[in-house]
Design a protein that fits this description.
Helices cover 45% and strands 8% of the residues. With 71 residues, the chain is mostly helical. It has a two-stranded antiparallel ribbon with strand order 1-2.
Length: 71
């Protein structure tokens, strides 16, 4: 979907299922506000916005680069 691709480029994110844009933010609500402002400046309007806190698994994978599973 062209709009999702444009949003991903604007926010340096990636797309999933052609309509979902995922952006990793480290500064919380202020980064979300900035991202929404950037989309608005580009003439893009999101249909839905969700903010998700990282799980312990997300943090572990980010820090170690592995799942920790033993084969």
């Amino acid at each position: 979907m062209p709009t999702a691709d444009a949003a991903a480029r604007t926010l340096s994110g990636d797309t999933s299922a052609g309509t979902i844009v995922r952006v990793v933010m480290n500064q919380g609500p202020s980064t979300l506000r900035d991202s929404l402002n950037r989309l608005e400046s580009a003439g893009l309007v999101p249909a839905h916005v969700a903010l998700r806190e990282p799980t312990l698994d997300d943090v572990f994978l980010t820090l170690t680069g592995t799942s920790g599973a033993v084969a």
